[in-house]
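Dear colleagues,

As part of the handover before I leave the project, I'm documenting each prediction I ran so the next person doesn't have to rerun anything. This entry is a single chain, and its sequence is reproduced below.
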Amino acid sequence: MSSIVVRVKQKQIAQLIAKGKRLDGRGLTDYREIKVEQGVIERAEGSARVLLGMTEVMVGIKIEIGQPYPDTPNEGVLTVNAELVPLASPTFEPGPPDENSIELARVVDRGIRESKAIDLEKLCVEPGKKVFIVFVDVYVLNHDGNLIDASALAAIAALLNTKMFKYEIEEGEVKIKPGHTPLPIRKRPIAVTFAKISDKLVVDPWLEEEQIMDARLTMTTDDDGNICAIQKGGSGCFTQKQVLEAAKIAKEKAEEIRKKLKW
Protein backbone atom coordinates (compact mmCIF):
# COMPACT_ATOMS: atom_id res chain seq x y z
CA MET A 1 0.00 0.00 0.00
CA SER A 2 1.48 3.36 -1.07
CA SER A 3 2.14 6.11 1.45
CA ILE A 4 -0.49 8.31 -0.23
CA VAL A 5 -3.18 5.64 0.15
CA VAL A 6 -2.16 5.12 3.78
CA ARG A 7 -2.44 8.85 4.55
CA VAL A 8 -5.86 9.04 2.86
CA LYS A 9 -7.10 6.08 4.92
CA GLN A 10 -5.71 7.55 8.14
CA LYS A 11 -7.44 10.86 7.41
CA GLN A 12 -10.69 8.97 6.80
CA ILE A 13 -10.33 7.12 10.13
CA ALA A 14 -9.73 10.39 11.99
CA GLN A 15 -12.68 12.13 10.31
CA LEU A 16 -15.03 9.27 11.18
CA ILE A 17 -13.91 9.21 14.80
CA ALA A 18 -14.45 12.96 15.06
CA LYS A 19 -18.09 12.19 14.15
CA GLY A 20 -18.32 9.40 16.73
CA LYS A 21 -17.91 6.57 14.20
CA ARG A 22 -15.23 4.03 13.33
CA LEU A 23 -14.07 2.54 10.07
CA ASP A 24 -14.88 -1.03 11.19
CA GLY A 25 -18.41 -0.09 12.27
CA ARG A 26 -17.84 -0.18 16.03
CA GLY A 27 -18.92 2.51 18.44
CA LEU A 28 -16.17 4.47 20.16
CA THR A 29 -16.46 2.36 23.33
CA ASP A 30 -16.91 -1.03 21.66
CA TYR A 31 -14.37 -3.86 21.75
CA ARG A 32 -13.66 -6.14 18.86
CA GLU A 33 -14.73 -9.76 19.29
CA ILE A 34 -12.90 -11.40 22.19
CA LYS A 35 -12.14 -15.12 22.37
CA VAL A 36 -10.42 -16.72 25.36
CA GLU A 37 -9.06 -20.28 25.39
CA GLN A 38 -7.50 -21.68 28.56
CA GLY A 39 -5.23 -24.71 28.92
CA VAL A 40 -3.77 -24.57 25.41
CA ILE A 41 -0.16 -25.57 26.23
CA GLU A 42 0.04 -29.10 27.55
CA ARG A 43 3.44 -28.89 29.26
CA ALA A 44 2.90 -25.55 30.98
CA GLU A 45 1.52 -25.24 34.51
CA GLY A 46 -1.07 -22.89 33.05
CA SER A 47 -1.76 -21.27 29.69
CA ALA A 48 -4.22 -19.26 27.65
CA ARG A 49 -4.73 -17.85 24.17
CA VAL A 50 -6.63 -14.64 23.49
CA LEU A 51 -7.94 -13.37 20.19
CA LEU A 52 -8.90 -9.70 20.23
CA GLY A 53 -10.11 -9.14 16.71
CA MET A 54 -7.06 -10.08 14.64
CA THR A 55 -4.64 -9.54 17.54
CA GLU A 56 -3.49 -12.86 18.97
CA VAL A 57 -1.58 -13.44 22.20
CA MET A 58 -0.56 -16.63 23.99
CA VAL A 59 0.64 -16.87 27.59
CA GLY A 60 2.38 -19.76 29.30
CA ILE A 61 2.94 -20.13 33.06
CA LYS A 62 5.86 -22.00 34.61
CA ILE A 63 6.40 -22.49 38.34
CA GLU A 64 9.76 -23.19 39.94
CA ILE A 65 11.21 -23.08 43.44
CA GLY A 66 13.78 -20.40 44.18
CA GLN A 67 14.77 -17.75 46.68
CA PRO A 68 12.51 -14.86 47.76
CA TYR A 69 13.48 -11.22 47.48
CA PRO A 70 15.27 -10.00 50.64
CA ASP A 71 12.56 -7.41 51.38
CA THR A 72 9.70 -9.93 51.04
CA PRO A 73 11.05 -13.14 52.62
CA ASN A 74 7.57 -14.57 53.22
CA GLU A 75 6.24 -14.09 49.69
CA GLY A 76 6.55 -15.90 46.40
CA VAL A 77 7.92 -14.18 43.31
CA LEU A 78 6.08 -13.01 40.19
CA THR A 79 8.00 -12.30 37.00
CA VAL A 80 6.49 -11.29 33.66
CA ASN A 81 8.27 -11.35 30.30
CA ALA A 82 6.92 -10.42 26.88
CA GLU A 83 8.19 -11.49 23.47
CA LEU A 84 7.11 -9.76 20.28
CA VAL A 85 7.50 -12.68 17.89
CA PRO A 86 8.90 -11.40 14.55
CA LEU A 87 6.28 -13.27 12.51
CA ALA A 88 3.55 -11.27 14.31
CA SER A 89 4.40 -7.95 12.64
CA PRO A 90 6.90 -6.58 10.11
CA THR A 91 7.87 -4.01 12.76
CA PHE A 92 9.01 -6.70 15.23
CA GLU A 93 12.67 -7.68 15.00
CA PRO A 94 14.55 -10.64 16.49
CA GLY A 95 16.94 -9.99 19.32
CA PRO A 96 16.82 -8.79 22.94
CA PRO A 97 13.63 -7.17 24.27
CA ASP A 98 13.07 -3.63 23.02
CA GLU A 99 11.28 -0.79 24.81
CA ASN A 100 7.89 -1.93 23.49
CA SER A 101 8.16 -5.48 24.86
CA ILE A 102 9.56 -4.16 28.14
CA GLU A 103 6.64 -1.73 28.53
CA LEU A 104 4.14 -4.47 27.67
CA ALA A 105 5.60 -6.82 30.29
CA ARG A 106 5.65 -4.07 32.93
CA VAL A 107 2.02 -3.05 32.38
CA VAL A 108 0.85 -6.68 32.58
CA ASP A 109 3.02 -7.24 35.67
CA ARG A 110 1.75 -4.09 37.39
CA GLY A 111 -1.90 -5.01 36.91
CA ILE A 112 -1.39 -8.45 38.46
CA ARG A 113 0.90 -7.24 41.23
CA GLU A 114 -0.96 -4.10 42.34
CA SER A 115 -4.36 -5.80 42.32
CA LYS A 116 -2.92 -8.47 44.64
CA ALA A 117 -4.31 -11.01 42.16
CA ILE A 118 -2.04 -13.76 43.51
CA ASP A 119 -1.80 -14.50 47.24
CA LEU A 120 2.01 -14.47 47.23
CA GLU A 121 2.25 -15.36 50.92
CA LYS A 122 0.74 -18.76 50.13
CA LEU A 123 3.64 -19.35 47.73
CA CYS A 124 6.17 -19.30 50.57
CA VAL A 125 7.72 -22.73 51.14
CA GLU A 126 10.34 -21.81 53.76
CA PRO A 127 10.52 -18.14 54.86
CA GLY A 128 13.65 -16.41 53.63
CA LYS A 129 14.89 -19.52 51.86
CA LYS A 130 12.46 -21.15 49.45
CA VAL A 131 9.41 -19.82 47.63
CA PHE A 132 7.53 -20.56 44.44
CA ILE A 133 8.45 -18.35 41.49
CA VAL A 134 5.65 -17.77 38.97
CA PHE A 135 6.92 -17.05 35.45
CA VAL A 136 4.38 -15.41 33.14
CA ASP A 137 5.62 -15.54 29.54
CA VAL A 138 3.66 -13.46 27.02
CA TYR A 139 4.01 -14.23 23.30
CA VAL A 140 2.47 -11.87 20.76
CA LEU A 141 1.59 -14.02 17.74
CA ASN A 142 -0.25 -11.45 15.63
CA HIS A 143 -0.29 -7.68 16.06
CA ASP A 144 -3.38 -5.77 14.97
CA GLY A 145 -3.45 -3.26 17.80
CA ASN A 146 -4.10 -3.11 21.55
CA LEU A 147 -1.47 -5.61 22.65
CA ILE A 148 -1.78 -4.48 26.28
CA ASP A 149 -5.41 -5.52 26.78
CA ALA A 150 -4.96 -8.81 24.91
CA SER A 151 -1.78 -9.67 26.85
CA ALA A 152 -3.20 -8.71 30.25
CA LEU A 153 -6.34 -10.77 29.61
CA ALA A 154 -4.31 -13.76 28.42
CA ALA A 155 -2.09 -13.50 31.50
CA ILE A 156 -4.91 -13.58 34.05
CA ALA A 157 -6.68 -16.33 32.06
CA ALA A 158 -3.49 -18.41 32.15
CA LEU A 159 -3.02 -17.79 35.89
CA LEU A 160 -6.58 -18.93 36.56
CA ASN A 161 -5.75 -22.09 34.62
CA THR A 162 -2.52 -22.74 36.56
CA LYS A 163 -2.03 -25.83 38.72
CA MET A 164 0.77 -26.10 41.29
CA PHE A 165 2.31 -29.41 42.27
CA LYS A 166 1.75 -30.60 45.83
CA TYR A 167 4.80 -30.90 48.05
CA GLU A 168 6.14 -31.52 51.54
CA ILE A 169 9.37 -30.56 53.28
CA GLU A 170 11.65 -33.41 54.31
CA GLU A 171 14.95 -32.56 56.01
CA GLY A 172 14.95 -29.10 54.45
CA GLU A 173 14.29 -30.40 50.94
CA VAL A 174 11.15 -30.02 48.85
CA LYS A 175 9.63 -33.38 47.93
CA ILE A 176 7.02 -33.35 45.16
CA LYS A 177 3.88 -35.33 45.95
CA PRO A 178 1.20 -36.69 43.60
CA GLY A 179 -1.58 -34.33 42.57
CA HIS A 180 -1.99 -30.63 41.98
CA THR A 181 -3.62 -27.62 43.58
CA PRO A 182 -4.84 -24.37 41.98
CA LEU A 183 -2.69 -21.25 42.10
CA PRO A 184 -4.08 -19.05 44.95
CA ILE A 185 -5.85 -16.35 42.93
CA ARG A 186 -7.79 -13.58 44.71
CA LYS A 187 -8.53 -11.02 41.98
CA ARG A 188 -9.01 -10.88 38.21
CA PRO A 189 -7.52 -7.58 37.00
CA ILE A 190 -8.66 -6.43 33.56
CA ALA A 191 -6.87 -3.80 31.47
CA VAL A 192 -8.88 -1.43 29.28
CA THR A 193 -6.97 0.74 26.81
CA PHE A 194 -8.08 4.03 25.24
CA ALA A 195 -6.63 5.93 22.29
CA LYS A 196 -7.14 9.69 22.02
CA ILE A 197 -7.97 10.54 18.41
CA SER A 198 -9.58 13.77 17.22
CA ASP A 199 -10.06 14.65 20.90
CA LYS A 200 -12.24 11.54 21.33
CA LEU A 201 -11.65 8.53 23.58
CA VAL A 202 -11.58 5.31 21.55
CA VAL A 203 -11.68 1.93 23.32
CA ASP A 204 -9.64 -1.02 22.00
CA PRO A 205 -7.79 0.77 19.18
CA TRP A 206 -6.85 -1.47 16.29
CA LEU A 207 -3.49 -1.07 14.56
CA GLU A 208 -4.45 1.66 12.09
CA GLU A 209 -6.09 3.67 14.86
CA GLU A 210 -2.95 3.35 17.00
CA GLN A 211 -0.90 4.77 14.13
CA ILE A 212 -2.81 8.08 14.26
CA MET A 213 -3.57 8.38 17.98
CA ASP A 214 -2.30 11.38 19.95
CA ALA A 215 -1.96 9.43 23.19
CA ARG A 216 -2.81 6.11 24.85
CA LEU A 217 -4.21 5.43 28.31
CA THR A 218 -4.57 2.02 29.96
CA MET A 219 -6.55 1.53 33.17
CA THR A 220 -6.54 -1.79 35.01
CA THR A 221 -9.34 -2.47 37.49
CA ASP A 222 -9.96 -5.34 39.90
CA ASP A 223 -13.18 -7.28 40.64
CA ASP A 224 -14.37 -4.52 43.00
CA GLY A 225 -13.93 -1.80 40.39
CA ASN A 226 -10.83 -0.35 42.04
CA ILE A 227 -8.20 1.12 39.72
CA CYS A 228 -4.96 -0.72 40.46
CA ALA A 229 -2.76 0.42 37.56
CA ILE A 230 -2.60 3.22 34.99
CA GLN A 231 -0.21 3.57 32.06
CA LYS A 232 -0.03 6.52 29.69
CA GLY A 233 1.74 6.40 26.34
CA GLY A 234 2.29 8.77 23.44
CA SER A 235 3.16 12.47 23.34
CA GLY A 236 -0.39 13.79 23.69
CA CYS A 237 -2.30 14.46 26.89
CA PHE A 238 -5.66 13.79 28.51
CA THR A 239 -7.88 16.30 30.29
CA GLN A 240 -9.14 15.64 33.80
CA LYS A 241 -12.62 15.14 32.36
CA GLN A 242 -11.32 12.54 29.89
CA VAL A 243 -9.47 10.65 32.63
CA LEU A 244 -12.60 10.49 34.77
CA GLU A 245 -14.64 9.38 31.77
CA ALA A 246 -12.05 6.71 30.97
CA ALA A 247 -12.18 5.42 34.57
CA LYS A 248 -15.95 4.99 34.37
CA ILE A 249 -15.79 3.21 31.00
CA ALA A 250 -12.86 1.02 32.11
CA LYS A 251 -14.84 -0.29 35.08
CA GLU A 252 -17.88 -1.07 32.91
CA LYS A 253 -15.88 -2.79 30.17
CA ALA A 254 -13.82 -4.79 32.68
CA GLU A 255 -17.01 -6.24 34.18
CA GLU A 256 -18.09 -7.41 30.73
CA ILE A 257 -14.71 -8.91 29.81
CA ARG A 258 -14.28 -10.64 33.18
CA LYS A 259 -17.31 -12.83 32.40
CA LYS A 260 -15.27 -14.54 29.68
CA LEU A 261 -12.86 -16.04 32.23
CA LYS A 262 -13.30 -19.48 33.75
CA TRP A 263 -12.60 -19.53 37.47
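The domain at 30-258 is CATH 3.30.230.70 (Ribosomal Protein S5; domain 2). The first helix runs from residue 3 to 18.

All the best with the project,
I.
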